[in-house]
Structure to design on (83 residues):
């Protein structure tokens, strides 16, 4: 069996043992499956992004933009300087 499948089964069985409500078991299984799918998709995306040499200039622009946004917003979110 795949590692992700075993994790979801463990999650569902653990919730089933603790919660008598079948709705909670279904919700736990569904959210676990969605979380695993998002995790695998993000991992695949990052793998492709990191191995394609044609995307390096784009990554550099995105990193510069993220730095500019963070350097603008972080001081504002931190509040006034302590006196």
């Amino acid at each position: 069996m795949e590692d992700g499948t075993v994790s979801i089964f463990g999650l569902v069985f653990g919730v089933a043992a603790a919660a008598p409500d079948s709705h909670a078991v279904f919700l736990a299984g569904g959210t676990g499956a969605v979380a695993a799918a998002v995790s695998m998709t993000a991992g695949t995306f990052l793998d492709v992004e990191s191995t394609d040499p044609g995307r390096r200039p784009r990554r550099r622009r995105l990193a510069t933009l993220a730095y500019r946004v963070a350097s603008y917003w972080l001081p504002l979110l931190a509040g006034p300087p302590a006196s």
Notes: Residues 3-78 form one domain. The CA atoms of residues 64 and 70 lie 10 Å apart.
